[in-house]
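Progress against Task 2.4 (sequence-to-structure conversion) is shown through the following example record, which the project officer requested during the mid-term review.
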Amino acid sequence: MDAAPRSADHDAMLAGRPYDAGCPQLCAMRARAQGLMRDYNATIVGQDARRAPLLDALLGTWNGAVIRAPFFVDYGCNIHFGPGCFVNFGAVLLDVCEIRIGARTQIGPNVQILTPDHPRDPSERARGAEWGRPITIGADVWIGGGAIVLPGVSVGDGAIIGAGAVVTRDVDPGATVVGNPGRPVATGSTPAANTPKSAPSAHETLLESG
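Structure tokens generated for the chain above:
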């Protein structure tokens, strides 16, 4: 990134305070990220010599993460990967605040990790107020396809987020969370005796999740 001092709105954004997204510095940062995304999303598997410098420039910490295009961010520079991570097709990581992802975490297709937040009062939204809250995802986490992780959430090491889950609150280490809103489920191999045969087990909800 450039060496220019951060604007007051940039500082406020990173701190989770209300800020103006139309700030010229933030607009320039988003334009830069969009250019890098465009170039990266035009590449294919095997073009490592082209892909590596693009991801290194786009992300705050790339660490060699394998990221299948297309891949979408707000700024990119606020995203930090640990080593050995994998991101499947169509991931959206909106990083108005930091997104930190631990080592060896796997992210399925069309996952959304969203730090931006907005006022609940429509009149405040109309005035353009917005802010964000950081997201932290631990090491060895598996996030199934189509899951959504909302602002301010922390996901503990070794957790599993089921396909299509909407994660609204923190997830304990090793927990399995499914549904909307996401809730922890037991992960034993034997379904409860009163579970209808037509109902999917917790394990089945994770299948085909990338």
